[in-house]
Amino acid sequence: MALGKRPDNRQAELFIATADLPQAPGHAFYRRLGKLLASANFDRWAEDQCRPYYADGGRPGIPPGVYFRILLIGYFEGIDSQRGIAWRCADSLSLREFLGYGPTERTPDHSSLTKIRQRLGAEVYERVFQFVLALVAEHNLLVAHEVGVDSTTLEANAAMKSIVRKDTGEDWREYVTGLMREAGEIDPDQTPSAAEVAKFDKQRKNKKVSNDDWENPYDKDAKIAKMKDGRTHLAYKAEHVVDLQTEVILAAEIYGANEADTATLVPSVESAQDHVDTTGTCRLIGKIAADKGYHAIDTLTAVEESALVGAKTYIPERKTAWNWKDKSPDQKRAVLNNRARTQRDYSKRLQRRRSERVERSFAHVCDTGGGRRSWVRGLENVRKHYLVKAAAHNLGLILRKLLGTGKPRAYGALGALPQLLQLAQITLQRFLRIAYAAKLYTRHSRIMLRL
To answer: Pairing with 427, which of 351, 378, 392, 410 sits 20 to 30 Å away (CA)?
Structure first.
């Protein structure tokens, strides 16, 4: 065989027969996902939900079912930006088949995805989440009796360098320049260079940036917060309410990063109960597990006074000295009842499951699902994208039950499972032969060696 050479300039063909276009066998994971959505009549349902947001006449736009499928691809492929998702869909033949586009058809552009996101209201995305939750209930994956609550930070699409003061409108450089004039570092009429401003800002002490004084003019909903890796950044807070028995996300709420966990626990759990009620399964949340950051007298009392009938909290208590003189009997009873429940062995088992399964949901949605970094601005837009990613996570649980895996990247590893088991068997037999030769064998090793 002769050596092949890559041509420098290839002339494009004028006509190409449709039968000569490349065809892909398709990805088994996305084919099964497409069958799942088709069996639930998702496309017609999505069109009915989005019909009020479109005009009666004019050129037909991108079908809503295709739009939400594209957002689902962002989770399953681990892509966080709309540009990346649009490029991936245009590049992959298997994803084209999943979306319903042929080899000669053009897939949606990222600008079209932005227009659709701006057109549709937030309630449509919440209904999509509830639709998937109803599918989860049909596959017997919804229990919703024991739930775990936790939160994490999402990096906003805004830079700290762009923040301005709310009272004067000064940006960071103008603010530091004013401090330099007050300290006598420069003359009143002198304008320092960027290097001088950075040097002074680095050396000065007691540097604090408060959300009460500063904001980003391009994304006013983003708040200054400390990220998981220790960086200070503009961010949002995502809070999950997870079914501890099936790992289904019952609610995925987005808040400002400066909102305390004690203030968002009750609204998130109430939202989870509302989502469960839409499935028609008549299930009630009975036990709520959270970490110490959620413990507060007002929070424990609010759970008992909320619409969560009969729900009990399992929240570890901080070490503090209580003064019951200014507390009502209901507040004292809520704290003491929660304290008694957390001291039981059942509470410890519940906390272990909460720390494992709620954190796993964040790992799937944020770390491998492309949800840690947001490329849209505004609390409502961030919530729209995040709800679809949480819905995709729940779809992955259904597919894990049907296929054995919840993401396409892990589906390929299933084919190598028999080889891995065979290799493990061979390794075990070699080990037992060595042990037999060294007379370290037992009755069980002789039985395994015969197998």
So the answer is: 410
Neighbours of 401 (CB within 10 A): 14
Q: What is the pLDDT of residues 365-374, one digit of tens each?
A: 999 999 999 9
Give me the sign of the Cα torsion angle 262, 268, 272, 277.
positive
Q: Which two tokens mark 254?
A: 């987005």
In this predicted model, what pLDDT tens digit does every residue of 291-339 receive, in sequence order? 999 999 999 999 988 888 889 999 999 887 778 888 888 889 999 999 9
Between the alpha carbon of residue 133 and those of residues 35, 116, 143, 276, 396, the distances in Å are 17, 23, 11, 8, 12
Residue 53 CB coordination number (10 Å): 12
Task: Give residues with Cβ within 8 angstroms of 400, minimum separation 6.
Answer: 406
If we measure between CA atoms, which residue out of 428, 445, 391, 417 comes closest to residue 125? 391
**Left, alpha or beta for 93 (phi > 0: left; psi -120 to 50: alpha)?**
alpha
- Identify the band that residue 249 occupies on the pLDDT scale cut at 50, 70 and 90: very high
C-beta separation of 290 from 148 below 8 A = yes
